Amino acid sequence: AYQTIDLLANYRTDSIFDIKSTEALESAEYHVKVGFDSLMVAMKKWEQEEGDFTWANYKRTTIQHLVPNFKSFSVSNVYTGGGSGILNATGSR
Questions:
Q1: What are phi and psi for residue 88, nearest 5 degrees?
Q2: What's the pTM?
Q3: N or C, where is the chain less crowded by C-beta within 10 Å?
Q4: Which pLDDT score, from 0 to 100, does residue 58 have?
């Protein structure tokens, strides 16, 4: 991680960032912008397909019966927040 940060901060136009199969000379800024644009497209797609960006919506906790085949006694997509470091936290199951 340190090496990557050093390259991005101090060697932005180094040939390591160039994509050899193109005529243009890509820089660190190019890759950051393309990565950001890809993130925005993925987030828009998630929002359209899944709804909001809350942790609970992403995690989609399931409360399962001890016998996994008893699906009718299980509950899917329980809307719970928090993470592993939170008091009374729930995991994905």
A1: 55, 35
A2: 0.61
A3: N
A4: 79
- Helices 28-50 and 2-10, axial angle in degrees (round to 10): 120
Q: Which of 32, 26, 24, 25 is closest to 5 using CA atoms? A: 32
CA-based nearest residue to 12, from 30, 38, 24: 30
3-state secondary structure the chain: CHHHHHHHHHCCCCHHHCCCCCCCCCCHHHHHHHHHHHHHHHHHHHHHHHCCCCHHHHHCEEECCCCCCCHHHCEEEECCCCCCCCCCCCCCC
Quick: pLDDT tens for 79-91. 777 666 776 666 6
83 vs 88: CA distance, rounded Å:
9
Tokens representing residue 34 in the block: 């393309």
User: CB count, 10 Å around CB of 3?
Assistant: 7
